[in-house]
Specification:
four-stranded antiparallel beta sheet; 4 helices; mainly beta
């Protein structure tokens, strides 16, 4: 930061507004204006997200940041300490005696020693639906060991259910869409589940509005409308994608407004109830073609989106260092011809950007540095024959997990690197005929996937041998410990 350096210290100009009211303006003619004292320079949202990686206060102050940093130990999980002190009574430290690590109690430490967690067999454990027969929306999400799934119910309302690993689902609440709405999208972060979609306002009347809405919470759900420009308040909104990364909830879509005005938008916010929007593109007549935002994601301190331009038949990936900034669409990130069909969704997985089609994709496009002019690497999926489709790709626990179908039969495929061979597992038994969900990993040993239509909930507990602590035998009465918990 820089100090202000005035030529005339303390000098101001007073301008009379009314009899006893004056405007005061600095007139010190600085040779250096100095750094302004604002939220952005003292404690920006980006800095706060780095300091509070899990439970961040809603409006943290600089004092809060110093208290948080001052109360931390210098050791991180996995650090080893040799000492004459006895730390056996402290849960956050374990003695390095070669014993088995309790992966349920110390998941982060177990991941450091356990290697990749690869599902080799799936087992149906619990029904997603107890009293209502519905269709599962296409994504499930996880926070800790709690899993959330949404299913379409009567009149297209959404019944949101949560579960812990192996336990029956319980109803978190009904999301009323007033008899209509589009597909719903889920994401999770900052200790909040978020479901994004649309609902009908003014059902049965004219005009009526399809309103962009989000529902959020951890144990119960609250709802609010996504902010939209004032010209959109008589027509319809549409959600195309949502995700969480770099401490931000992100969503994209478009709004149709009055007088033929339409706009594509990116919504963003560190908390689901404080979302704002960036207008990416706008048209004001039916003769103009709107550029749509198809997908949005964040990772490695970058924010990325995919835009579709139907006028010149291209799809392009844009990047920016803040969600509400100006996105750069470079030549190397622009696709035309048949390549543009491969670019419907973007995600940041295992230190690389991955492009796939929105649904039923046939190839991956991978790039490590989104800002470079390097070409995207094309990766073939595990099966390229006709009859193979893939719904979702995830990375966690050292493993890539694909879910999809081969000749109308549900499969999962796994590998530890996209350039290596994939292992296939066919799902069998009730509830597997419509495997539509992604996979989620709880950080210890459980991958979870959900089926649809037949109300399946399947999961697999890995058969990997539990990892052991390292073994050290220091001399002279010393003991060696490893940091196991924050």
């Amino acid at each position: 930061m820089k100090d202000r350096i005035p030529t005339y210290p303390g000098r101001v100009t007073l301008t009379q507004v009314t009899e006893n009211t004056y405007d005061l303006v600095r007139a010190d003619a600085p040779t250096e204006a100095g750094t302004p004292l604002t939220k952005a320079t003292l404690l920006s949202d980006e800095a706060a997200n780095i300091i509070w990686k899990k439970e961040r206060p809603e409006d943290p102050t600089v004092n809060d940041a110093f208290k948080e940093l001052g109360g931390r130990e210098s050791h991180e999980i996995g650090d080893i300490l040799t000492t004459a002190r006895n730390l056996n009574e402290k849960d956050e430290w374990l003695e390095c005696d070669g014993s088995e690590i309790d992966a349920e109690k110390y998941p982060d430490l177990a991941n450091l020693f356990g290697g990749p967690v690869i599902p080799t067999e799936w087992e149906k454990k619990a029904e997603l639906t107890q009293t209502l027969s519905g269709n599962l929306d296409s994504r499930i999400e996880i926070l800790g060991n709690k899993i959330i799934a949404c299913e379409n119910g009567i009149n297209s309302d959404i019944i949101c259910r949560s579960s812990t690993n192996g336990a029956a689902f319980t109803n978190m609440g009904t999301i009323s869409t007033n008899g209509g709405g589009t597909q719903h999208f889920t994401t999770a972060g900052n200790d909040q589940f978020v479901i994004l979609g649309t609902k009908i306002n003014g059902f049965g009347s004219v005009p009526r509005r399809t309103e962009a809405t989000f529902w959020y919470g951890n144990t119960s759900l609250s709802s609010a409308s996504l902010p939209v420009p004032s010209y959109s308040n008589q027509q319809e909104d549409y959600i195309a994608d949502c995700s969480f990364g770099n401490g931000y909830f992100l969503a994209c879509g478009y709004t149709n407004g009055i007088n033929s005005t339409s706009a594509s938008l990116i919504w963003y916010g560190t908390l689901p109830n404080s979302m704002t929007y960036k207008e990416m593109y706008r048209v004001t007549s039916i003769s103009e073609t709107l550029e749509y935002i198809l997908s949005v994601a964040a990772g490695n301190n970058q924010f990325c989106c995919i835009k579709s331009n139907n006028t010149n038949q291209t799809v392009a990936v844009g990047y920016c260092d803040s969600p509400g900034g100006t996105y750069t669409f470079s030549t190397s990130n622009t696709f035309s011809g048949t390549d543009r069909n491969l670019t419907g969704k973007i995600r940041y997985l295992n230190n690389a950007w991955v492009l796939t089609q929105q649904n039923n994709f046939t190839k991956f496009l991978v790039k490590t540095d989104i800002t470079s002019e390097d070409a995207w690497q094309t990766i073939d999926p595990p099966v390229t024959a006709q009859g193979a489709t893939f719904n979702s790709i995830e990375y966690a626990g050292g493993t890539y997990l694909l879910t999809g179908f081969l000749n109308w039969e549900p499969y999962s495929w796994t590998c530890t690197a996209l350039t290596e061979a994939w292992s296939a597992v066919k799902l069998t038994g009730p509830g597997t005929l419509s495997l539509l969900s992604n996979g989620v990993y709880d950080g210890t040993s459980w991958w979870t996937i959900c089926g649809s239509f037949t109300s399946a909930y399947s999961y697999k507990k890995t058969n990997n041998t539990p990892p052991n602590l390292p073994l050290f035998k220091p001399s002279q009465g010393l003991k060696t410990y490893i940091k196991a918990l924050e």
